[in-house]
Design goal:
Blueprint lengths: L11 H17 L9 H22 L3 H14 L4 H16 L1 H18 L9 H9 L2 H7 L2 E9 L2 H8 L1 H21 L3 E5 L4 E5 L2 H19 L9 E9 L1 E3 L2 E3 L1 H12 L5 E3 L1 H6 L7 E7 L8 E6 L9
Helix pairs in contact: 1-3, 2-3, 2-5, 2-7, 3-4, 5-6, 8-9, 9-10
């Protein structure tokens, strides 16, 4: 493809160039992807989004126009409107995740080579796809798996009775600030406030564990200060498929995360085995906390206590 001229605005010629690029990219990996599944489709969305961004930069599109091109590219890859909306809402988070950024960067590189007239712009694409399909954690994300976190302020009802509404609200404000700071640092999203805590979601189990540990670290520092009423919190994490409606999540994964939080002690982070497995190889420490009876689960379930040492992992 000849290098496009820089022109104002998104044109039909640009859209046609993107479609031609996608057709060539899919043709380059047809022998490497014998079966299209959700995981491969998600990877191609990331690849296409990266390519669209690079094309937008090459043609001088502004940020908004480039994002429109990203959206149209993901739609052209056969996604439903709901999937396109969900992908675009979380695209910034995907770009910040190393394993997802791999596919985005591959799209950017292939597009730049394509625009520059390289005869083999997809030379390494098959290798990238093979790496992508071997990534268990990314496969879990593509299958709709999320990590749900619940925080709970310990003894909040008794605190209100003993110290009054204003003092109790101060504790809630401190809790909220610490939790939200950690969510921002670890790419988490606040789903809702539960009154005595916060429910949040993460696309990465490891990020969720790091974020939860950082919350407890920060609270330890604050609670150690003189003349400060301690903010005591327990946290529970679970990962799995969850039903998403608008900005909320529902289902057994969410219910179990809340029950895991109930089992944690003051200042602790408890997680299920799903979270531990999805965080494998990330340098995190998990200790067997024992087996617990969980409502809705026929057999006692082993939960794991997150090792919380050192300073914030966001430092």
């Amino acid at each position: 493809m000849p290098a496009p001229e820089k022109v104002p605005g998104l044109t039909e010629v640009m859209r046609r160039h993107i479609l031609e690029f996608l057709a060539l990219a899919l043709g380059a990996i047809k022998d490497e992807v014998p079966r299209m599944n959700q995981h491969v489709s998600f990877g191609l969305n990331l690849f296409g989004a990266g390519a669209a961004q690079a094309y937008g930069q090459t043609t001088g599109l502004n940020r908004m126009q480039s994002f429109v091109l990203v959206r149209e590219t993901v739609e052209a890859l056969g996604n439903t409107p709901d999937r396109v909306d969900a992908f675009c809402r979380q695209y910034t988070e995907y770009a910040a995740e190393e394993r997802y950024h791999m596919m985005i960067a591959a799209g950017e590189e292939s597009m730049r080579r394509h625009v520059a007239g390289d005869p083999e712009p997809f030379e390494n694409f098959a290798d990238v796809i093979q790496m992508w399909t071997s990534d268990a954690a990314a496969r879990a994300q593509a299958q709709g798996i999320v990590c749900i976190m619940f925080t709970d302020i310990v003894g909040s009802t008794q605190m209100t009775h003993e110290r009054g509404d204003y003092a109790a609200q101060d504790v809630v404000r401190i809790h909220n600030a610490v939790v939200r700071q950690s969510l921002a640092a670890h790419h988490g999203r606040e789903v809702k406030h539960t009154g005595d805590g916060i429910m949040a979601s993460f696309t990465s189990a490891a990020n969720a564990v790091r974020g939860a540990a950082d919350i407890q670290r920060e609270l330890r520092v604050l609670n150690a200060k003189p003349d400060v009423f301690p903010v005591l919190v327990r946290i529970g994490l679970n990962a799995g498929e969850a039903v998403q409606e608008e900005d909320d999540f529902f289902g057994t994964t969410v219910q179990l995360a809340a029950r895991v939080c109930d089992k944690a002690g003051t200042g602790e982070v408890f997680v299920t085995d799903n979270v531990r497995v999805l965080s494998d190889g990330q340098g995190l420490v998990f200790n067997d906390a024992g087996k617990f009876e969980m409502k809705g689960v026929p057999e006692p379930m082993t939960l794991y206590r997150v090792g919380i040492t050192g300073s914030s992992s966001a430092d």
